[in-house]
Write a structure and sequence with these properties.
The chain is an alpha+beta fold. The protein has helices spanning 10-19, 59-66, 72-79, 193-200, 266-274; strands spanning 34-38, 54-58, 90-91, 99-103, 106-109, 113-117, 120-127, 133-138, 149-151, 154-156, 163-165, 172-176, 182-190, 212-221, 226-228, 233-235, 238-240, 244-246, 250-254. It has five helices and 19 strands. Bound molecules: zinc ion (ZN). Zinc ion binds next to strand 2 and helix 2. This is HNH endonuclease.
Length: 287
């Protein structure tokens, strides 16, 4: 970053991501790990954060743009190109054999199925052949629209989000839709119990081994009373926070809500649930 230049405002980044359909607009790319390139004018001529003269590009194509590979006219045309939205997908990496899942303000350790509602697994893990825990997330929605799917730590099927934020370091993923549905996740290395206590203001996880990597997952299903926020989980009449569920087959299991879930074409969900191990679910007591 050039000396003296202000950091790029959030709304500018959001606008630039949206312009290119949340994927790098260079032909055949679609990489969602986006950076922000100043080209009209270039920052060495005049520092600015004017979205009209900026474009979202992946790291590789950002370097090429810095090297002069694309003309100003080409970059202005690429700013209007959303055709790569269909290619947008990513991998979470962060493969670990041990994870602390922090979902909606509760802690899950050695618990593969975190939350299941009406037979749909919202958040769960599968171990791959190398023993790594792979994250799976299905968003619920009252809208008959595509919602992001994370299958074995790879994500795709973003639909038409209001915003999708996938910073190049790969620690975070955030997607928001215009009806209010949202998903946010981030990975964080907890080097010590003390660090975890400071972050979460509890020591309920004191008996699990540290250091450990945490994956935090929060989700809102608009128009329902299902919300998984950093401070609590609210599902139907339950509100819980700060609980530890460890060494269980299943965390939350909610059945027969009577809600007609409409996210994603049904065939996609069927394909997803067929791949899941049928471990016996256990209801937990919630306070
Ligand atoms: Zn690219």
């Amino acid at each position: 970053m050039a000396l003296g230049r202000k950091s790029i405002p959030k709304y500018v980044k959001e606008k630039l991501r949206s312009e290119v359909g949340f994927g790098c607009p260079i032909k055949g790319c679609g990489n969602p790990y986006l950076e922000y390139h100043h080209f009209d004018p270039p920052v060495h001529i005049k520092p600015h954060n004017d979205p009209k003269g900026m474009i979202a590009l992946c790291a590789q194509h950002h370097k090429k743009a810095d090297g002069g590979a694309y003309t100003i006219e080409q970059l202005h045309a690429l700013k209007k190109d959303k055709t790569h939205a269909a290619l947008v997908k990513g991998n979470l990496d962060w493969l670990r054999k041990d994870l602390l899942a922090v979902v909606g303000g509760n802690f899950y350790y050695n618990t593969l199925k975190v939350i299941t509602i009406d037979g749909i697994d919202l958040v769960f893990f599968e171990r791959d052949e190398k023993g790594y825990l792979r994250l799976n997330v299905n968003m619920l929605s009252l809208e008959p629209e595509d919602r992001l799917i994370i299958k074995n730590s790879s994500w795709e099927n973003i639909g038409s989000p209001l915003d999708l934020r996938s910073p190049p370091q790969g620690k975070e993923l955030e997607v928001r839709y215009d009806n209010g549905d949202s998903l946010y996740l981030r990975f964080i290395d907890l080097v010590s119990l003390a660090q975890a206590i400071e972050r979460y203001e509890t020591d309920i996880f004191r008996d699990i081994p540290f250091p450990i990597t945490a994956v935090e997952v929060n989700m809102t299903v608009a128009g329902t009373n299902i919300e998984l926020t950093p401070s609590h989980s609210r599902i139907g009449g339950f509100k819980t926070s700060g609980s530890l569920i460890s060494n269980c087959g299943s965390g939350f299991l909610i059945k027969n809500t009577g809600v007609l879930w409409r996210q994603n074409p049904v065939f996609k969900l069927k394909k997803l649930v067929l791949g899941i191990n049928k471990s016996k679910p256990v209801n937990i007591n919630v306070q």
